[in-house]
Amino acid sequence: MRRLSIFILASALVASLAGCEAPANEGAYASEEFVSQSRYVPPGNPSVTLLTMVYNDTGRSGHTALLIDGPSERVLFDPAGTWYHPVVPERNDVLYGMTPQLYDFYMDYHARETVDVYVQEIDVSPEIAAYLIDAVEAYGQVGSARCAYATSEILSQTPGFESISRRWYPTRLMADFAELPGVRESIVVDDDSDDNLELLQAQAAQAARLELAREMAEGSE
Questions:
Q1: Domain count of the chain?
Q2: Which residues form the signal peptide (predicted)?
Q3: Residue 190 belongs to domain spanning
Q4: C-beta pairs of 77-80 under 8 Å, 24+ apart in sequence
Q5: Cα 216 to Cα 211, 212, 220, distances in angstroms
Q6: What is the pLDDT of residues 123-164, one digit of tens each?
Q7: CA-to-CA distance for 79 and 185, rounded, in angstroms?
Q8: Are 150 and 68 in contact (CB under 8 A)?
């Protein structure tokens, strides 16, 4: 019954998902137990990655998100975001437990035939990464169409990022971020359909299979 509930919950939310306009899990506040159990510690140096979704036919902004790889955990600040996964704890607009596989799910959801994802990564000190995690956790729920503004407001108050202005448009924030020294840039493209219903259902079904495998493994111990 639990696995069926996971799939039904994810499927029911799909219909409302689109852009930086209708948060998929508005007001969500995962339990401390869920967050702790799901925590993912990334390898490598602490870093900050700005993700910008851009419509490739017009260059129009789509969405902004901020991935923070800290010394003790990874979080994804997805203000007014529309991606949802039942195994990912969310508190307001902060997503926890973003393993490489779940991060790939997130990127696959956003990159499609009409949208490219611009990836800008920069190394930071452990202290700055921890500062940013605290900042996004304290920011609270972000309203519709305020993804770039919320992200730029947080960054502009962060040591080393003071050159970033408060921006309403993701592409303008992306341009500011590009001026930071040491930024590594790449673009993720995909030819998937704009209809993400099937993709999200597949991701939710995979989560159910993983949960079943975990329960079976625990039962054999």
A1: 1
A2: 1-24
A3: 2-219
A4: 77/136, 77/139, 77/151, 77/154, 78/106, 78/147, 79/20, 79/139, 79/142, 79/146, 79/147, 79/150, 79/151, 80/20, 80/21, 80/22, 80/23, 80/142, 80/143, 80/144, 80/145, 80/146, 80/147, 80/150
A5: 9, 6, 6
A6: 999 999 999 999 999 999 999 999 999 999 999 999 999 999
A7: 21
A8: no
Residue showing tokens 């700055």: 128
Q: How many residues does the chain have?
A: 221
